[in-house]
Amino acid sequence: MPKTIDYQKIFRLDYLHRQGITGAGVSVAILDTGAYPHEDLKHLLYFRDYINHASDYYDDSGHGTHVAGIIGSSKLGAAPNCNLIILKVLNQLGEGKTSNVLQAIDWVIAHKKVYNIRIINISIGTISKRSSSYHPLLQAVERAWDNGIVVVTAAGNHGPGAYSVTTPGISHKVITVGASDDRLRTHFSRAYSGRGPTISCVRKPDVVAPGSNILSCLNRQNGYIEKSGTSMSTPFVSGILALLLSQNPELTPKQVKLLLYETSLDLGVEKNQQGWGLINPRGLLGV
Fold first, then answer.
1. Which of 27, 109, 168, 263 is a plausible cystine mate for 141, CB 3.0–4.6 Å?
2. pLDDT digits (tens, 9 = 90+) for 209-234
3. Which of 32, 40, 60, 182 is catalytic?
4. Active site residue 172
């Protein structure tokens, strides 16, 4: 049986914020549907639209705004003072071209020093039967990783069967995030979090985080909305890692991943469901 976890005790992020651990100075690139300039998103640093080539912040879907809020909202975000780089690669329906995602990743690599981009958040994915040796999206995220950028990506919502982790989450290098609470009542009619192994026999996800009924920013009227999915688990991890990197800027992606391995909490379920376990923010930061 899964262990009972006291989420309130573990995720006392307000305690970390009061200690001055807020993600200040670290930039997170969000590849998604854009972002509405919500009043809680006080650190929107850069916007580029690969879909409609607009110049001002917008989000015609709502998905990207929700993700951005989980990372960096001043009221609800894990890292309320981190900078947000918004790269719109998906349209109103959450659809996009691989070529646009590849361009966005290449832009991040080229501009990482200019904006101190330490993390790429990819709360999107696709089912693919191609291995990491051939899929261009996998090659791109691994190139970003090798260039010193922590890539955090979703396990996808095609679980609970095996081999259901989406691309680029099947990469052996990047940090793949599943939902720790995917059996809660949501709009999904099943336990949804993608499970490993991958077709290359890599155990995935790497870690899990809360993903069901998560409250974050709405893409209009400065309101709020609940959404569920590994799309919500992923930015939670990205925000926590922004806290970590703001305190320990010398860490490499490999070292960040090792710290997750050492500090995550075993939930007592199968490894291809939880990876190393539930992310443990205070354990990760040593406070």
1. 168
2. 999 999 999 999 999 999 999 999 99
3. 32
4. no
Query: Is 133 a residue of the active site?
Result: no
Tokens, residue 137:
């999206």
What count of residues does the chain have? 287
Catalytic residue list contains 231: yes
Q: Are 65 and 34 contacting, i.e. CB atoms less than 8 angstroms apart?
A: yes
Tell me what the pLDDT averaged over the chain comes to. Answer: 94
What lies within 8 Å, CB to CB, of 194 at 6+ separation is 125, 154, 155, 156, 157, 158, 159, 164, 165, 166, 169, 178, 204, 205, 230
Question: 133, exposed or middle or buried, with CB in 10 Å at 0-12, 13-18, 19+?
Answer: exposed
Ranges under pLDDT 70 in the chain? 1-5, 8, 128-133
Looking at residue 165, its pLDDT comes to: 96
Q: Which two tokens stand for residue 102?
A: 């590849």
Q: HSE on the CB side for 241, CA within 13 Å?
A: 36
Residues β-bridged to residue 27: 83, 117
Question: Which of 260, 209, 238, 266 has the alpha carbon at shortest distance from 67?
Answer: 238
Choose the catalytic residue: 73, 123, 228, 231: 231
Give the chain's domains with CATH numbers.
12-282 (3.40.50.200)
Q: pLDDT tens, 23-48?
A: 999 999 999 999 999 999 999 999 99
The span from the CA of 221 to the CA of 36, in Å, is 9
- Catalytic pick from 38, 43, 63, 66? 63
**Distance between CA 180 and CA 178 in Å, rounded?**
6
pLDDT of residue 121: 98
pLDDT at residue number 185: 84
Token pair for 78: 């894990």
Closest CA to 261 of 243, 279, 247: 279
In this structure, are residues 16 and 80 in contact, taking their beta carbons and an 8 Å threshold?
no
